[in-house]
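Pasting as-is:
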Amino acid sequence: MKLLTNVRRLRPLLALRRQRSHDAKTAVAEEAPRQPVPTSAQLDELERNVELRQHRNNMPLIRSLVKQVKDGDPDTLSKLHSELQQLPNATHPRLQDYGVEPRELAQYMHRELPPQSNLKEFSELARSLNLYRMDHLGNYTGHKSYYLTGQLAMLEQAIIQYALQAVMDHGFKLISVPDILPREVIESCGMRTEGERTQVYKLDTGECLSGTSEMALAGFFAGKELSEKQLPLKVTAVSRCYRAETSGLQEEKGIYRVHQFTKVEMFAICTAEQSEAELEEFKNIELDLFRRLGLNFRLLDMPPCELGAPAYQKYDIEAWMPGRQMWGEISSCSNCTDYQAKRLGIRYRRSSDGQVLYAHTINGTATAIPRLLIALLESYQQGENIEIPDVLRPFMDGQELITRNKRIPETKLVKFIKAQT
């Protein structure tokens, strides 16, 4: 009931935004002769950015629509506006010459690992401890589903509480968010809900399952005008995240890439002058979280082609997963500048002159459970047991080791053969 209430709460905000948008489009059409459209130089710059980010190129259509508007067809303005909304955000100048590869900014090595010959990967470890099940679930939970049981389920909850405590100590306020969102919120955050390659699950009602609580947190502030003294406004949420994506890559097997998982998300609304500093704070919070967990990890500055549509700049953090012998992404943080705020109508009133401006938004992952579990179990394996990191023990009643679960029976696939008489 609470979830439905939250969804209904978002709808009036979106209806108001759509009404304002409709009124604005009507006004634009009426004022078409005086309404500026992108210049030739601006169109060239937009196309360079689209190509730099390897984004879907709709610039030929945009150029055609601009020509029609200039030729006196005001009815084309709304379509031009819609196509311009599909363009990616601008790109930070320092990323212009990165090419397609990220830049490694730092490595953080906190744990000496035993020889590779003695290491197991997550699925093997978790199965041997009888704490995990992913096989033979397709008939009733679907592909890429999983169960965590016993001490592994407790470890998941310990990680969540550890992350929440850390981010709330940095001034973030906890919000419980809905998992079902209107399509407009998800698309306004920069994720497409249509097309063959969409990662979004769509419901028969027309609403969608949220891919990250960033979307619900952003939608919570849709259509709102804040005062400058309220900023930066920092919130956090724990939610299930739903992704329609899948992968057949061997290195992404098991719970590395799944259709649903739990994540602790950080989100901030701030001024344009604050956003770069806020992104650095998000990055430093994430680095400290994984440093205290004792993981070996590295910080990456991502190239333009890895930013998605909304991000102006983005950091990724990859942990070393010794059982898989690979680096795997466990966190990221992005500065979306005013990309999401413009689409959701999130504004603030500047104190100095009372001018109303679009805010900037920042998002970051404090913990994404499945991949963090992979990194922790593979890094802390000790023979048949798993050592629990010191910072997680207070959330597990002081427990120091994860041992084999003997209370939950092992599950095996059994074939029933009808006896012949």
